[in-house]
Fold:
Amino acid sequence: MSSRFQELDWRQTPLGELVLRKRWDKTFDKEVHEIKLDDDFLMSSLFTVAEEEVARRALAEVTGTNLDVAVGGLGLGFTALTVLDNPAVGSLTVIDALGEVIEWHQRGLIPAGAVLTADPRCELVHGDLFALARSADGLDPTRPDRRFDAIIVDIDHSPRHLLHPSHGDFYAPAGTQRLAGLLRPGGVFGLWSNDPPDDEYAAALALGFARVKAEIVRFPNPFQDHDATATVYLATTEQV
Structure:
């Protein structure tokens, strides 16, 4: 491996080979952390705008204080950090299917880990968000009646490009209706997607939620001759 790259950890997981590495990027003149699963880049600290915006925009849809928030997907922690930056948040549960990623944060191998593990509002949970969402006990098996003010998900590349086929039902009409039932009245579901807005998925969300919108997030990418884009879906339950 080039001296520019340092492999911090490597694990074989049920989803494939998981690698955490850091490198020095000459273009940005800074250290970059990256997580790879087989040949896919799951996350890079070079590009975090969309991961932060899905949290920021989702929480902007919710009113009140002491908000109870769940995030699906820990990654490098930028979505979770943005949630905790909001003073209205009272508790944050971050669910990740890869215990190795949680361990990296706890060991301090990922910079965000120091903040996340020190904040008393934040709990890192090893679990399969998709399996929990379809279960009778919901996202918190210890409290089956628990309902969240916001559920924010950043796991798959998009509703059509999945990390694992078992995630598919989460994006189907029945899955979106189950998801709406895990939120309080006026609660919001936020989803990051690397694809353009998908009318079919928005229609599936509309079957379970009162209001649905898909917003395009733009951010500069110096490796291309144009801005990169991602989509943030925001779906809100009926307010009582």
